[in-house]
């Protein structure tokens, strides 16, 4: 179940350099490269002549892409501009292109109807590109599991108590938390507060806490698979909570997630961690990133284990628990959006 009329992250900006770059997205082969002005071009990774991957080719003549097999060239619009063995070019000798935008150090691609590709609808991930306000570092993980398993994971952070107890979690996140879930204009917001509880190991390292803290997690889900987490902690008694929101002091961080399906059983997981305190401290940025990376690799092991079980046996059905409230809302939204795309009915997505 892929949603096509949405933006997806195709790559980090540093991945697209001076040669064609291949990546499979929504089970379609894509080649990415830069034109002569440095803009990003995305097109189908298949030469229409004999189906050779265009990503095996080279860039020539100010941005044209030349197929390695027979030297056939295509301009940035996908139009064939040269066939070495003949002067006339068949009308069908062209390659599909996709709208692509570079923003927040990510390369965004639109896999659906190009007429609906509005860059104004790209979700806000400015934390990645405002170094005077946020220290940030990220990466991409290749996950051998369906993309929806990652969405589920991020919408229910009670697993931090067991999967990540050595870094970003402890028992309090599951046992002492108060949760609220609300629908937003386009998605779901999950809010969790843990009051007057011991901080997890990574919070002690980042914030230097010596006693109990009040801790918050605000998880903002936007379809198809974007999750922006506002997380942090402050010394207990700071006045934080549902009524007042996070306090001005303490440690404030953003965990940023863009989940791009590769196939039905594999995923490109783009993520980053940003901190809004001591933002120019490169050692702090590296430490926080390292702690979260360690945790996320633990998550990947879970995702891939789930996928193996799913592949082996599709039943019996899953049984929901109270902590699944945000997941259930997100699944309903995704199902409605998929129905709308399949039927062409916009009202089905409401």
Description of the structure:
- This protein has 350 residues and is an alpha+beta fold.
- The chain has two domains: 7-121, Rieske [2Fe-2S] iron-sulphur domain (Rieske Iron-sulfur Protein, 3-layer Sandwich); 130-343, Alpha-Beta Complex (Naphthalene 1,2-dioxygenase Alpha Subunit, Chain A, domain 1).
- 21% of the residues lie in helices and 32% in strands.
- The protein contains six helices and 18 strands.
- The strands form four sheets. The protein has a seven-stranded antiparallel beta sheet. Strands 2-3-4-9 form a four-stranded antiparallel beta sheet, with no helix packed on it.
- It is elongated, with a radius of gyration of 22 Å.
- The mean pLDDT is 92.
What layout of secondary structure does this protein have?
Layout: E1 7-12, E2 21-25, E3 28-34, E4 40-44, E5 58-60, E6 64-66, E7 73-74, E8 80-82, E9 97-98, E10 100-103, E11 106-110, E12 135-143, H1 147-155, H2 160-163, H3 172-175, E13 177-183, E14 188-197, H4 201-207, E15 213-222, E16 226-235, E17 251-261, E18 267-275, H5 282-312, H6 325-343
Antiparallel strand pairs: 1-11, 2-3, 3-4, 4-9, 5-6, 6-7, 7-8, 10-11, 12-18, 13-14, 14-15, 15-16, 16-17, 17-18
């Amino acid at each position: 179940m892929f949603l096509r009329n949405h933006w997806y992250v195709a790559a980090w900006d540093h991945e697209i350099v001076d040669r064609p770059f291949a990546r499979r997205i929504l089970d379609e082969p894509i080649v990415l490269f830069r034109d002569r002005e440095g803009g990003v071009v995305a097109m189908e990774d298949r030469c229409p002549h004999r189906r050779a991957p265009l990503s095996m080719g080279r860039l020539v003549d100010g941005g044209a892409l030349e197929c390695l097999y027979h030297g056939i060239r295509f301009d940035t619009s996908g139009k064939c501009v040269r066939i070495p063995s003949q002067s006339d070019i068949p009308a069908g000798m062209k390659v599909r292109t996709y709208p692509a935008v570079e923003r927040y150090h990510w390369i965004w691609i639109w896999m659906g109807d190009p007429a609906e590709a509005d860059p104004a609808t790209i979700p806000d991930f400015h934390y990645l590109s405002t170094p005077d306000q946020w220290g940030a570092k990220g990466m991409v993980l290749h996950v051998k599991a369906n993309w929806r398993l990652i969405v589920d994971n991020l919408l229910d952070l009670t697993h931090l108590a067991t999967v990540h107890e050595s870094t970003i979690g402890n028992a309090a996140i599951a046992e002492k938390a108060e949760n609220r879930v609300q629908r937003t204009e386009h998605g779901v917001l999950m809010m969790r507060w843990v009051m007057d509880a011991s901080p997890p190991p990574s919070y002690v390292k980042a914030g230097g806490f010596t006693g109990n803290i009040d801790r918050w997690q605000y998880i903002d889900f936007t379809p198809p698979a974007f999750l922006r987490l506002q997380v942090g902690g402050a010394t207990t008694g700071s006045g934080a909570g549902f009524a007042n929101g996070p306090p001005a002091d303490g440690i404030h961080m953003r965990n940023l997630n863009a989940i791009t399906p590769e196939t039905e059983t594999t995923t490109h997981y783009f993520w980053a961690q940003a901190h809004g305190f001591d933002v120019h401290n490169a050692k702090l940025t590296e430490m926080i990133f390292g702690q979260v990376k360690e945790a996320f690799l633990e998550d990947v092991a879970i995702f891939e284990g789930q996928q193996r079980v799913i592949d082996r046996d599709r039943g019996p059905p899953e049984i929901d628990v109270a902590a699944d409230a945000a997941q259930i809302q997100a699944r309903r939204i995704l199902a409605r959006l998929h129905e709308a795309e399949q039927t062409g009915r916009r009202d089905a997505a409401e």
